[in-house]
Amino acid sequence: MSIPIPGEQVRGSKTGKPIMALLDLLGRTWALGVIWQLSKGSATFRDLQQRCEKISPSLLNTRLKELKALSLVESTSLGYQLTPTGVELFAIITPLGQWSEYWAQQINKEKVDDI
Questions:
Q1: Topology, domain 18-114
Q2: For the chain: N or C, fewer Cβ within 10 A?
Q3: Rounded Cα distance, 13 and 28, in Å
C-alpha cells in the first residue's frame, strides 16, 4: 500500500483530496496511535514500541517511515518526535477525543433507556 499523498488517488478517493489522504493515513493501523504517543514527548524506537502496547517492529517501522515522509514525525538525537505540523494535527485531533467521550456517554445512556 502506498503512502497517501494529497492530490493522488487514495483509499476512498480517486481525486486524492487532502482530507481523504489524511483520513486514509489516520485510518491505518497504529498511525493515529503513534501520533498520540509522540504527543507526550520524544521517544526512541524501543520506547515508542512499549508505549504502543508492543506494536510489532515491522509495523512501527512502516508507520514511522510514512509519518516521516509526510512531515508529521522527525528523527532527532532524542528519538522520534512530532514535527510542528504533527503538533498542529494533534491539536485538531484532541477535541475529537473529548467529543468521543460525550458520544460514548450518549450511546450508553440510550442503551440504558432502551431497557
A1: Arc Repressor Mutant, subunit A (1.10.10)
A2: C
A3: 15
Answer whether residue 77 shows pLDDT above 70: yes
Cell of 108: 450508553
> DSSP secondary structure string, 4-66?
--TTS-BTTBSS--HHHHHHHHHTSTTHHHHHHHHTT--B-HHHHHHHTTS--HHHHHHHHHH
Delimit the domains of the chain by residue range: 18-114
Q: Closest Cα to residue 32, out of 99, 102, 103, 86?
A: 86
What is the mean pLDDT of the segment spanning 1-26? 88
Q: Which amino acid is at 87?
A: V
CB 86 within 8 A of CB 73: yes
Q: How far is it, in rounded angstroms, from Cα 58 to Cα 77? A: 22
Distance, in Å, from the CA atom of 100 to the CA atom of 98, rounded to the nearest integer, reads 5
Does this model's pTM top 0.90? My answer is: no
CA 32 to chain centre: 2
